């Protein structure tokens, strides 16, 4: 195993995962009642890089990347929370405030001491769903590819993994909103519809990129 190659894949997939989570609440307007979050446009690349690692180094290393990304994402936010809790000097207060807004928008105080932290429900849900669906994705890809070809394997694995991902993530992160009646089931269905449209579009895009990579390697 070439350790540096594995580390490079790990770094890339972690960065994609982190960026996806950071932008998960930033939406772009597509059509009336159809908004798509930017994070969902970046997230599919984590599937692509995972399957590229599998093709190069096998199942063991692909699973290791899933485990590491899951653990490192949680550790990253623990460290960021601690750092953002530390008061900045006057000249860097604006920078400190911006970092808190991006990474740790929530806080509670003990006396005059403020402790900043991310949206824990979304972070844990995002991390667990990532772990589960990428594990399903790579196992599905291996099973299908073994009996057919990489094209069919990637297509089915991508759709299965990504659709399960959104079917879990959207309802789980909106349970509180549904219970508080800040959104209704019709709005939840619209969210899922927008996500499924994105899933179809990005899955096709990932498939095209993957096929081009495979053909280039053959040549």
Task: Give a description of the structure.
- The chain has about 220 residues and is mainly alpha-helical.
- It is globular.
- The strands form 2 sheets. A two-stranded antiparallel sheet has the order 1-2. A two-stranded antiparallel sheet has the order 3-4.
- The protein has 9 helices and 4 strands, in the order H-E-E-H-H-H-H-E-E-H-H-H-H.
- The longest helix has about 35 residues.
- A hairpin with a 2-residue loop joins strand 3 and strand 4.
The profile of the biggest β sheet is: 2 strands, antiparallel
The unreliable regions are: none
Query: Would you list the SSEs in sequence order as H and E?
Result: HEEHHHHEEHHHH
Radius of gyration: 19 Å
Distance from N terminus to C terminus (CA atoms, Å) equals: 24 Å
Q: Give the mean pLDDT.
A: 87
Helicity range:
over 70%
Question: Helix count, per DSSP?
Answer: 9
Give the helix/strand class: mainly alpha
Q: Based on DSSP secondary structure assignment, what is the total number of beta strands? A: 4
Query: Which term fits the overall shape?
Result: globular
Strand order, main sheet: write it out: 1-2
Q: Indicate the proportion of strand residues.
A: 5-15%
